[in-house]
Amino acid sequence: MKLVTAVQMRALEQSAVSAGASLDELMEQAGLAVAQEAWLSLGVVEGRRILVLAGPGNNGGDGLVAARHLADWGADVVVYLLAPRAGDKHLDLVRERGVACLVATGDAAYTSLQQALDGAELVIDALLGTGRGRPIDGALADVLRRLNGATHRAMPPKIIAVDLPTGIDADSGRADALAVTADMTVTFGLAKVGLYTLPGSEHAGRVQVVDIGLPKDAEAAVPLDLLGTAWVRERLPRRPKSANKGTFGRVLVVAGSSNYAGAARLAAEACYRAGAGLVTIACPSSVQPMIAPAIAEATWLPLDDVAGALSGRATGQIIDALASYDVLLIGPGLSQREGVRDAVLRVLAAVPATVRGCVIDADALNALAQTPRWPERIATPAIFTPHPGEMARLLGTTAEAVQDDRLHVAMKAAADWRQIVVLKGAHTVVAAPDGRAAISPHANPLLASAGTGDVLAGAIAGLLAQGMQPFEAAACAVYLHGLAAEEAGEEIGDRGMLASELLPALPRAIRTVLHGKSSRGGA
Q: CA 489, 209, 137, 180 torsion: positive or negative?
């Protein structure tokens, strides 16, 4: 599914107008869709009390169209206007039906608003849409305080947001302190980025995208995708019956140290679980005996080490071995001990052209962050997989700044570094230097535990080894990783999953994508 920013949505609406549609026609379709969703939400609308909160712009106009249709269907509708809408034909049509239309500017102490809220079974939030540029203060803040208060009563009204919950930024998902928390958001044409970025996704409720007649060819050119089953299914590599392990690629995993031995095992097994044919773990020789019993399928490149960590002497061993591999995964659990940084930099500078790509994760990212002008050192196609803290170190900023605008931070970094960026976290972002980006629909607390990032890095490397392009490999792995956690959560709830439990869940998630879910006892 495509996602759009506010600017992109306005351009699509303009293209629809240029193609012959009118803004009134678009508004009519949008308002009708909201009214239909309100009907479906209540089951029966006749005699049901519905409050429409209408702002001064087009979002408010959509709400007025919805109010008109609901009144025609027998609902007991009240419209509450944030400000007068002089000469508005949609308001005139509502008034012709005898609908009570109240205005905030004439409502002393908001008594009428409170009475309407107290009796409402459903509230339609049509106060502000994607074009919001005004601060939430004055009458708007007063209205939202009372709406939010109504949601805490014993039997709160359902809330349907029109296009975007009021107080949510369409592009970043940032939420005002008074932002509406909806049960459903009916969004028009294409979903907005902020509906799938925290905290916006927590305010949106269920998102329903409705067609309002935008040109399909214009939509196809939108470079941002919400990852989904169909998108991933179309891109996963085929598995011919005539295959051998060489068919599915060879991965060299440079990972692990005495303090983080398990990271190497998690990353390597994830490569296998994603479908790679052969995986070699290059780890300090003193670490190998610690993890070898846990992954019998791996082959090994024991490295010279110093006190259980990668040493400079190991660099030549890794570089010599790389010519035999399709993909390099470097970083999980390497630690930040002395010598690791130099070893990482030397390896990355010497990756041969025969290697299809590198996945650079964890401590390899930390090594780069300590190096001036580090992007110039990496010539091989690479996929960077930072969490917000690592991204902040790479950019010389704060994790808070990264989280404040995740999509644009990831997209700018991908363009500047000319590499694929996977910004991990709830609703992980995958960005390419050519402007493409994809957002994961998953935001799962089960993934907020140590080791799950190692599994993701391995899954990316495993798909890359099978011949996928870097952007597609990263995006598909992100989706499968989130789906695996989601399916695990159906059984165990929202806590207590170990990263190692994601490993067998990965091939089950792939099966779900390719063939749908099967019963527990099914094939």
A: negative
Q: Using DSSP, state whether 329 is helix, strand or coil.
A: strand
* Strand pairing category for 158-162 and 299-303: unpaired
442: left (phi > 0), else alpha (psi -120 to 50), else beta?
A: beta
Neighbours of 425 (CB within 10 A): 20
Q: Which residue has the tokens 């306005």?
A: 10
Residue type, 224: L
In one-letter notation, the amino acid at residue 226 is L
Q: Whose CA is closest to 274, among 414, 498, 513, 462? A: 462
The answer to whether the predicted template modeling score (pTM) of the entire model surpasses 0.85 is yes
pLDDT band at 521, cuts 50/70/90?
A: very low
Tokens, residue 403: 């989280």
CB 122 within 8 A of CB 186: no
Instruction: Quickly count: other Cβ atoms within 10 Å of residue 328's Cβ.
Output: 29
| Sequence-ordered alpha helix ranges (H) in 52-179 | 58-72, 89-96, 111-119, 138-150
Binning pLDDT at 50, 70 and 90, where does residue 494 land?
A: confident
Query: CA-to-CA distance for 65 and 10, rounded, in angstroms?
Result: 20
Is residue 282 within 8 A of residue 253, CB to CB? The reply is yes
CA dist 358 to 361, 390, 479, Å? 10, 17, 20
State the virtual CA torsion across 88, 92, 95, 101 in degrees, nearest 10: 10
Biggest distance spanned by C-alpha atoms of the chain: 84
Compute the distance between CA of residue 50 and CA of residue 61 in angstroms, rounded to an integer. Answer: 16
Q: For 204-228, write each residue's pLDDT tens digit.
A: 999 999 988 877 777 778 899 999 9
* Cα-based angle 365, 424, 301 (whole degrees, multiple of 5): 45
DSSP string of 18-69, one letter each residue: HTT--HHHHHHHHHHHHHHHHHHHHS--TT-EEEEEE-SSHHHHHHHHHHHH
Which helix (DSSP H) or strand (DSSP E) does residue 346 occupy?
helix 340-349
Q: Which tens digit of pLDDT belongs to each residue from 453-476?
A: 999 999 999 999 999 999 999 999
Q: Indicate if the alpha-carbon torsion angle 8, 209, 137, 94 is positive or negative.
A: positive
Sign of CA dihedral 271, 272, 273, 277: positive
**Structure token pair of residue 340:** 């690791």
